[in-house]
Amino acid sequence: MPTTEPDRVPGRRDARFAVVDPATGEPFDEAPDQQPDELDAVVDRSHRAWRDWRADPAARTTALRGAADAVETAGDELARLLTREQGKPLTESYAEIARTAARLRYFADLAPRTRRITDGRPVHSEVRWRPLGPVAAIVPWNFPLQLAAAKFAPALAAGNTVVLKPSPFTPLATRLLGSVLATALPEDVLTVVTGREPLGARLASHPRIRHVTFTGSVPTGRAVARAAGASLARVTLELGGNDAAVLLDDIDVDRIADRLFWAAFRNCGQVCMAVKRVYAPARLHAEVVEALAQRVKSVAVGPGLDPDTRLGPVNNAPQLARVEQVTEQALADGARAAAGGQRLDGPGYFFAPTILTDVPPDSPVVTEEQFGPVLPVLPYRSLDEAMDAANGTGFGLGGSVWGTDLDRAEAVADRLECGTAWINHHAELSLAQPFAGIKNSGVGVAGGPWGLYGNLRPFVVHRPREE
User: Where is this region: Disordered (predicted)?
Assistant: First the structure.
C-alpha cells in the first residue's frame, strides 16, 4: 500500500499541518505536527498506565465494551469527519465505524487460555499469558478507524497499552476517535499522536515500545522492521497486496459481474485485499471486459458526502499521481481502456474508474499494487498459465477463484500462494479469522484469537506435585 506524506506547516512544538479534503483538493482543517522528541513523555505515560491496565482483565472487558458503545454514540460525527478527510462515501464511513465498534466488542470477550502440560514429569507445568507492554500502532489512510481498531482492540484486550499514529492524510477522525475512547478507557491507555516523519520512525524505534504493528507499503514496512529491531520489539506488518481473481471457464459472467466489480472498486480501489487483476478464460475475456466496463459507465462518482455517490476520490495527490502514471504507462505500452483511463476534470482527486484490456503482463499495473480505481483484465488459455500468473508477483495477501463448480473452484483456490483465498467473492473477513499475508505482503498475524495471542507472550510456571 503506497504511503506518502503531506508537506509540513513550518513551526516547532506548536506546529500544525494542513489536512486536505480529497473531494476538493483544498485544506479544510489542521492537525498537530508533534515532534519526535515529544514521544518520550507519551510512551512513559503509556508504560505507567500499563501497570494497572494489565492487572484487571474484568475491568478491561468492561472498559472495552463501554468503548464500543461510545464509538456508536459518536457515529454520526465520526462518519462525516472520516468522509471529509478520506473521501469515501458516507455509507462506507458508517460501515467502518460499525466495524470499529464490533471489533472492540469481539476482543472485549476474548481471553487467552491457560494450558496444563502433561509430559510424565513429576511437576505441574502451566502455560499462562502475559501482555508485552506499550504497543505502537501505525495506521494508513485508506481505513483509518477500522485498521486502527484492528491493532488497538486486541492489544488492549491482551492488557497492553497503545500509542496510535494515523497517517498525516487522515489524522482528524482518529484524533476524534481517541477523544471518544477516552470517555471509556483509563487515562493514557490509548494515546493518539499525529505528525509527519520522522515521528513514525521514532515511535517504531522507541526503546520502551514492545510491539510495533504497521500497515502500509513494502518499503516503509521494511524500514519499520529495521527500526523496531533496534530494541528487538515484536513486529506485525501488513504490507499490501496485488490480489488476483481467477475466473474459471464455467462462470456465469452476468451473475458474478457486480460482485467482481465491487471487489475491485470499493473505496475507490484503495483496499489492500481488493481484486487488483483479473484472469479470464480467453473465450470469455471480451464478455468479462464488457460486463465490467458497463458497470463502470453507470457508477456514480463524486464527493463522499453526496448521498448519490458510490465511488469517491483518490485520497491524496501523490496517490492520484501514482494511479495516473501506471495507467498512462499501460496505455503507452499497448493497453486499451474499455472504460475510463484518465483523471476527471474539475477540483479534487478524482480518477475515472478504469477497465484495461490488452495489457502487457509485465506492465506495472499488473505486477505492482496500483491501489486505485484501475483494473486490468487479462486472458489465459490454460489454467496452469493462469495460476502461474496469479502467483507470479512478490505479493501474497489474498486471491479468489470464481466458478460454478464449487469443488473444482476450491481445488484451484488451494493452488493460490496467499494468506486468504475466497470462492465467488473477495475481500470479506470475519472478526474471528486470522488475517496474514506471505511473501512481501507481511509478517505476523492479525484477527481472531491469533491477533490476541500476537499481543501476548507465554509465561510458564512449574511446581512440584504434592509430596
Answer: 1-35
